[in-house]
Specification:
Layout lengths: L3 H9 L5 H4 L3 H35 L4 H27 L2 H20 L4
């Protein structure tokens, strides 16, 4: 009786769908691979953007005012990438997509400063 009671309680829960819990492993594996690729893409985008900005500075140095804006944009982009990486590692799917979008926007803002 003690062994049957937990199963009876699970089945008695209203609105509980065991079908949603019993997805094939490929469903979860595919989502994980896509999340991993998105994280790697954002990190690679940031690294490329940082190299472009540094190369531009080597060719034609930024003015002190522009350099301050570039440093601020670089810090914001780097922090956004770190947040996305942290959310991926902790499995926080609810905020992960938003963090990826924020990181891409911050990287685009950094790249927009190349012409200054």
């Amino acid at each position: 009786m003690k062994r049957i009671l937990p199963f009876a309680l699970i089945l008695a829960l209203p609105g509980c769908s065991l079908g949603a819990l019993m997805q094939p492993p490929a469903t979860y594996a595919n989502a994980t691979v896509l999340d991993e690729r998105a994280a790697l893409l954002v990190e690679s985008l940031y690294q490329a953007a940082a190299r472009i900005v540094l190369t531009r500075h080597d060719i034609r140095p930024y003015s002190p005012e522009a350099l301050a804006r570039v440093k601020q944009a670089d810090r914001k982009a780097y922090d956004a990438v770190l947040i996305a990486r942290t959310l991926y590692r902790t499995g926080n799917a609810a905020q992960y997509d938003d963090a990826l979008d924020a990181a891409k926007e911050a990287i685009a803002a950094l790249l927009a400063l190349i012409g200054e």
